[in-house]
Automatic annotation (TrEMBL):
Keywords: 4Fe-4S, Gluconeogenesis, Iron, Iron-sulfur, Lyase, Metal-binding
Name of the molecule in the record: L-serine deaminase
Domain Serine dehydratase beta chain: 11-123
Cofactor: [4Fe-4S] cluster
SUPFAM superfamilies xref list: Serine metabolism enzymes domain (SSF143548)
Record Gene3D superfamilies: D-3-phosphoglycerate dehydrogenase, domain 3 (3.30.1330.90)
Catalytic activity: L-serine = pyruvate + NH4(+)
Natural source organism: Granulicatella adiacens ATCC 49175
Signal peptide boundaries: none
Pathway(s) this gene product operates in, as recorded in its UniProt entry: Carbohydrate biosynthesis; gluconeogenesis
UniProt GO MF annotations: 4 iron, 4 sulfur cluster binding; L-serine ammonia-lyase activity; metal ion binding
Length: 225
């Protein structure tokens, strides 16, 4: 019977990597995915982007196309989009201010391919630390959003939900209804609100994702899958 449990690599294509503009699945396709997750957290295209690279990313980002890959994800480009190599230029034409920083110290999340992204505009700032773990796959290690900071194990899928104190979490109810296994659950407090992080052991069905999208119309929920 086919399993719907999360695995590091679910098929040989995860090792080979996705269809993409090159040169590297880890430094290009993975970087696009990290940028795309930051875009999801921000909720669109920001006015300002700061990208701090660590270790291998810091040493090779220029030659491996990591700069244009990160920005491609932030702009919402797919890995095989012909605009990927021009993403930095396109973003600047659209008025996005971009800063790349090569950090000399070790990664704060102990991974060679680490990108620490801060996206902002005049109303909103978010931060996401992601790692590219091979074959285009990524992990989310730290997020800062809506006044919360949460450290995570990394593997996707991950769901975040912000609720008022005393409010019944809607995402938890939905996970129970669909029989989705929660591998880790985390809670961070900020004033009279709490952010609940669900790190999941199961892949999510299209039906579940659609119900999450419906909930997002009235609740603060972030899905990384």
């Amino acid at each position: 019977m086919e399993s719907n449990k999360v695995q590091n690599y679910k098929s040989c294509f995860d090792i080979i990597g996705p269809i993409m503009v090159g040169p590297s699945s880890s430094h290009t396709a993975g970087a696009i995915a990290i940028g795309a997750l930051a875009r999801q957290l921000f909720g669109g295209t920001p006015k300002n982007v700061r990208c701090d690279y660590y270790e291998s990313f810091a040493e090779t980002h220029k030659g491996h196309g990591t700069d244009f890959a990160i920005i491609s994800g932030i702009l919402g480009f797919a890995t095989d989009d012909e605009r990927v190599p021009r993403a930095v230029e396109i973003a600047k034409e659209e008025g996005v201010q971009i800063e790349f920083v090569e950090r000399k110290e070790m990664s704060p999340v102990n991974h060679a391919n680490t990108a620490d992204l801060t996206l902002s505009d005049e109303k909103r700032t978010i931060r996401l630390i992601g790692t590219s773990v091979g074959g285009g796959a990524v992990e989310v290690k730290v997020i800062e959003v809506d006044g919360f900071k949460m450290e995570l194990s990394g593997p996707l899928p991950i769901l975040l939900e912000v609720v008022s104190l005393g409010e019944m979490p809607k995402v938890y109810q939905l996970l129970q209804e669909h029989g989705v296994t929660i591998s880790k659950q985390r809670v961070e407090m900020a004033e009279n609100r709490q952010m609940i992080g669900y790190e999941l052991a199961d892949l999510l069905s299209p039906e579940f994702k659609q119900q999450i999208q419906t909930l997002r119309q009235t609740h603060t929920i972030y899905l990384f899958a």
